[in-house]
């Protein structure tokens, strides 16, 4: 087999292209952070209850991570699976909560129905969506565009760049809220007493 026919070369090319597309998807988000993003931060910071994050499929996995990051950085948050929400778990959303609903297409049925239920209860709905002019986008009070030019896999089909962009937007929200709340290293350590980083921070505070 000649070097030109080496499958390893094709594999490396695909891997590098994946990294390039994902990096471009993340970089594109910076230009979308404007007053709409600040309004979402305002809504969450002023929330009398909790942030409830929902999604389905890969978006659901990303939603769990976003909820966990928010909760560990000073913003009370939980994840509610969109399908389970339609079978009773929507009761976890109380007046004063903020729902962050995630859908790449903005047309995921369970997510859209859940978002409509929450909107009808006069709770705030934030959409992290790839298509602003979609059912979910039109239902939400606030829309954060996490759309990407293309997915990062060779077939342009698997949720890759889109889920990475959504995850990073969640991190951006968490960081902005940390600053808004004045969340400190001491707060972080108290939230993470069993982790190595938390123990390190608590030890440093004890020695100070």
UniProtKB/TrEMBL annotation:
Biological process GO terms, please? carbohydrate derivative metabolic process; carbohydrate metabolic process
Q: Which is one Pfam family of this protein?
A: SIS
Q: Which UniProt keywords apply?
A: ATP-binding, CBS domain, Isomerase, Metal-binding, Nucleotide-binding, Repeat
Q: Which SUPFAM superfamilies does the annotation name?
A: SIS domain
Q: Which InterPro entries match?
A: GutQ/KpsF_isomerases, KdsD/KpsF-type, SIS_dom, SIS_dom_sf, SIS_Kpsf
Q: Which CDD domains match?
A: SIS_Kpsf
User: What molecular function terms (GO) are annotated for this protein?
Assistant: arabinose-5-phosphate isomerase activity; ATP binding; metal ion binding
Domain annotation SIS: ranges: 40-183
Q: Which family does it belong to?
A: Belongs to the SIS family. GutQ/KpsF subfamily.
State what protein this is by name: Arabinose isomerase
Lineage in the entry?
Bacteria, Bacillati, Actinomycetota, Actinomycetes, Streptosporangiales
